[in-house]
Design goal:
Helix content is 31%, strand content 18%. It starts with a strand and ends with a strand. A hairpin with a 2-residue loop joins β1 and β2.
Amino acid sequence: MVPEQGRMIDVTEKSINTSGLSRRSFLSGSLAMAAGAGWLSGSAWGDASLGLEVLGKVRPRASKSIGGSPLGVGFETLDRKMFEPEPTYPYLAELGAKWARMQTGWCRCEPSKGKYDFAWLDGIVDRLLGMGIQPWFNLGYGNQLYTPEATNQFAVGWVPLWNQEARQAWLRFVGALAEHFRDRVEHWEIWNEPNHRNFWKPHEADPAEYVKFVRMTAPVIRQAVSEAKIIGPAVWSPAYFKGCFGLGLGELVDIVSYHWYRAIPEDKYEAGVAGCREVLAQHKLNLPLWQGKAVALRKRRVRVRWPTTRGTKPGKPAGWCGARLTICGCAST
C-alpha cells in the first residue's frame, strides 16, 4: 500500500497502475515505501537524514510474480566491468522492477577484429529473464580496434561514424548482436546521451550527426529482429532534443527516450515531460516516452560507505549512490 493524499493505494496488483496519480504523488509515495521498508534508513545512509516520517512497512513482491509494470532499473556499466553482477541478483529479483537498461559494450563483445564474444552478456540477460525482468539494450560505445585514437580502453563516447572501416565494423557488430539476441531482446536504444561531450567524440555534439548515426544503425537491427522497437535519443537537452526531431528522428524510432537530471528529481517534472510531448506534437508524432535515466544531483557531499567489488569506498556523493540504489528507469505513458 502506498499513501497518497490521505488514502491508501494498493500496489500489490499484478499490474501497477499509476495513471490516476500525479508524478509528484507517485514519487512521494515511492519514497514513503522505501523509508518504511528500511531502504533509506540511517544505517544505509550513514549520518544523512532525509527527515521522512515512517508510515509503515511494505512487503516487497518479486519481479517474477508481477505481471507488468513501467518500473525498471539501470543495470549499466557492465560493459566496462565496473561491478560484479552476481551479488546483486538476490536483491534485484525481489525489487519488483520489470525492466533493466543494459549497455552492450562493443569493445567487450569484439575483443579482436571480427571475433565476437557474447558469453558475458548472455549470462546477464538470461539471469534477468529468469527473474521476470526484461532487458532492453543501449547500444554503444566505441572500440579501440577501429577508433585507436580513443583515450580510454573502453572507448567510451567514441562514435564509429567518421571513417569507413569503423562504420562498417560497427554495423557488422550491431548485426551480429541483433541476430544473437533476436529472441530475447526486442527494445534497442541507439547510443547514450549523444548531446554530452563525454559521450560524443571526437566531434562536437550535433543532432544532425546523431540522426545520421541512427539512420544507418536502425535498419540493421530491424533486419535481424522483426519486432524490434528502436529507441532514442536518450538525452536531456531541450535544444538537442528538438533538433533531433526537426531532422527526422521521429521517422526512425518507435519509442522516445529522455533523461532527467535535477537536484530534486520531481522538480518541474511535469513541465519537462510536457515539453517533450510538445516537440513530438509539432511533428505530428504519437510515440511513447520512456524515461531512461533519472539522477538526483547533489551540491552538498555526504559521506557514505558504498560497497564495491573491492571492499568499501567512502566519500561518494549520496545523490550518486542513491541513483544507483533506487529505481531509475520508468516508462512515461
